[in-house]
Write a structure and sequence with these properties.
Layout (H helix, E strand, L loop, with lengths): L1 E3 L10 E9 L4 E2 L3 E3 L4 E10 L3 E15 L6 E15 L15 E2 L4 E3 L1 H9 L39 H6 L7
Parallel strand pairs: 7-8
Antiparallel strand pairs: 1-9, 2-5, 3-4, 4-6, 5-6, 6-7
Length: about 170
């Protein structure tokens, strides 16, 4: 997802907007939820030339799909994330405190927005997605959906107390 920034040159103050629909890259999500590869990503960005490089800011809109972490029902919603990243020119100098490898670069008059988009979207996804906050999930014993059977439960007797449970039965014969 590389974009040409040659038209901005190295003239601080020059700016252009980028409004585009691009296909979503792979791995734009976590285990239970994410953006489907190839789905539409709507970018509304502003690219500004600054002294150090190209400042990219704006928003990205994606459709998130996945499943509830409790009941496994499908989830789908739109998500708008803020994007802001500085792409340094190739000859930029960094101080000792700044890790040069973590800085994004303008390479051959191109900027790659895929890692920036991935960072922005994945950090906004819920770690444990739920269809609603009060979702009861599934029964851990049999897998029945607890929302469909509100009084559902299983009689679980600790095997260490099983002999005593037999003593409490009313039809017990001596």
């Amino acid at each position: 997802m590389a974009f040409d920034v040659k038209d901005l040159g190295r003239s601080p103050g020059s700016m252009r907007t980028l409004t585009e629909h691009v296909p979503a890259p792979s791995d734009l999500g976590v285990a239970l939820i994410g953006v489907q590869e190839g789905s539409d990503v709507e970018l509304d960005l502003r690219l500004e030339a600054v002294h150090e490089g190209i400042l990219v800011s704006g928003t990205a809109n994606v459709e998130v799909t996945g499943e509830c972490g409790r009941c496994l029902d499908p989830l789908a919603y739109d998500l708008e994330v803020n994007v802001q990243e500085l792409f340094f020119y190739g000859d930029a100098e960094f101080s000792d405190e700044e890790d040069e490898e973590e800085q994004r670069r303008v390479e051959h008059d191109l900027i790659d927005l895929e890692p920036v988009l991935r960072d922005a979207v994945v950090t906004m996804l819920p770690f444990q997605p739920v269809c609603r906050e009060d979702c009861q999930g599934l029964c851990s014993e049999c897998g029945v959906r607890l929302e469909d059977e509100p009084g559902h439960h299983h009689e679980v007797v600790d095997p260490r107390w099983a002999a005593l449970a037999d003593l409490a039965k009313p039809d017990r014969q001596n």
